[in-house]
Amino acid sequence: MHKNDCINFIESSLNNGKLPGMDAMAQMAPVNRKLDYPDKNNYSDSAVALLLFEQDGELFFPLIKRTSHNKNDKHRGQISLPGGKFDQEDKTLLNCAMRELEEELGVDKANISTLGELTKLFIPVSNFMVQPFVFYSNNYSHFTAQESEVEYILEIRLKDLLDDNNVNKGEIELISGRKINDIPYFNLNNHIIWGATAMILNEFKNVAISYKTN
User: Using alpha carbons only, what angle is made at residue 130 by residues 33 and 191, rounded to the nearest 5 degrees?
Assistant: First the structure.
C-alpha cells in the first residue's frame, strides 16, 4: 500500500459526497441498535478523531483504552477513538476533535492535516451526536496519554483494520459484568473493539479498502 497514494485516495473519497454511511455502520451495529437520529435535538454534540500516521513504512492509527474510574463516563473501560464533548470555546466540531487529540494523546495540532469527515452517529447510551474526523500526520514521534482519561494507547495498523479475518461476532462483557451476545466486533491488537467505535471504523474501512480495488 503506497502511503501517499492511499492518503490522497482517502482524502478524495471523504470529500466526494459518496460516503458509505449508515449501510457500512450497520454491519458492525449491535443487535437491535437503532440507527436513526433522535426526534428531538436534546443531545450533546461531540467529535472523535481518526489520526493516520506513518511508522516503519506503514500507516497506523491510534485508539485509546478509556480509564474505568470515571462513573460519569458511559463508555469507561472501553476501547475508543480519541474524542469528547463539544465545548462552546471550540467554536467548531473540527476544533473539538483537534483539541481532544492534543489533550488525550499529546498531538501537536500543527503537525496534522484534516482529510475529511465521516458520517455522524447518534449514541443513545450517552446521548451524544458524534462527528468523526479523519486526520493525517507525517511527523509522528510518540503519543503521550492523558492520565486522567486514558489508561493506555493502542497503535493499530491500517491493514489490520482492512483484514476481514479480524471481524468477529460473539459475547461481550460490559464493565458492569453484564454479558450481551451476538455482538459484531473487530479484534485488533488482541483487543475487542465494538459498538459505536466499531461502527465508525467500519465506515472508514469501506472508504479505505476501495483503494485496494481501484
Answer: 65
Task: Find the CATH number of the domain harbouring 186.
Answer: 3.90.79.10
For residue range 43-54, list pLDDT tens digits in order: 999 999 999 999
Helices (H), the chain: 3-14, 22-26, 93-105, 158-162, 195-208
Give just the sign of the alpha carbon dihedral 137, 141, 146, 152: positive
Model pTM score: 0.92
What are the CA-CA distances from residue 99 to residues 11, 73, 149, 150 (Å)? 21, 19, 14, 15
What distance, in Å, lies between the first and last C-alpha atoms of the chain? 12
pLDDT tens-place string over residues 145-198? 998 889 999 999 999 999 999 999 998 887 677 888 899 999 999 999 999 999
Query: 156 and 59 in contact (C-beta within 8 Å)?
Result: no
- The 8-class DSSP code of residue 94 comes to H
Across the strands, what pairs with 113? 136
Please tell me the total count of domains within the chain. Answer: 1
Q: What is the DSSP letter of 131?
A: E
Which residue range forms the structural domain that includes residue 120? 3-213
